[in-house]
Amino acid sequence: MDAVAEERRTVSVLFVDIVGFTAVANHLDPEQIRAIQHEYFRVIGQIVGRWNGAIEKYIGDAAMAVFGVPRSDEYDAYRAVRAGLQLQEALRGRRFFGGQTVQARVGVATGEELVDLTGGGDASRARVCGRVVTTAARVQRYTSSGTVAVTEITRDATAALVQYQELPPVILAGHEPLRIWQACRTIGRGVDLAGPVRTPALVG
Questions:
Q1: How many domains would you assign to the chain?
Q2: pLDDT digits (tens, 9 = 90+) for 150-200
């Protein structure tokens, strides 16, 4: 059995889901649905990759990406939010196969998870799993189409670089109310961290 390299690490998870795609798909042929999904997932993959994220999985018309694996720095949460904002910009008004438009909701959650550093490319193992993943998926369900919603930890980690508007708290069964924010725009220094992660030099 291959050894599994694991460690606890703070990561950010982005979850994106098409709004109302089931209703649209009911009027399309399977080939048309497949064509729309291929283009939609290609757009997601390009943007997530530009911001150093890794696509973890595609689930129907949803996608999950992880930021902070295998390499990480203090800007992982910021990259996840920037990817979400850029994704919404790319989808806004875009015409897919057959002239179809697509609207999506994006949720971003940040927290400590047990990370499998060897899981990339292996369908039998996930890079991350647990509370951060499920929180990101839940957060996107409670925001409006065309927007990006984030958890409190994500907001705190990026507040100097992104302007937010607080949304009504999310009530989850068996949990305390979850505070969430909508990402509005980038502010501050206008940091552009697309491209390879640059590991800070260690002094002393």
A1: 1
A2: 999 999 999 999 999 999 988 876 667 889 999 999 986 555 555 544 433
Could you give the C-alpha distances from 93 to 40, 67, 110, 147, in angstroms and in order? 13, 27, 29, 14
Residue 148, in any domain of the structure: yes
Euclidean distance between CA atoms 72 and 10, whole angstroms = 9
Contacts of 60 (CB under 8 A, 6+ apart): none
Residue 180 lies in a domain: yes
Question: Are residues 138 and 107 in contact, defined by beta-carbon separation less than 8 angstroms?
Answer: yes
Q: List pLDDT tens digits, range 112-146.
A: 887 877 655 554 456 787 789 989 998 998 889 99
Buried b (16+ CB within 10 A) or exposed e, 144-162: eeebbbbbebbbebbeebb
β-pairing verdict for 148-151 and 104-116? parallel
What is the CATH number for 137?
Answer: 3.30.70.1230
Distance CA 2, CA 54 (A): 22
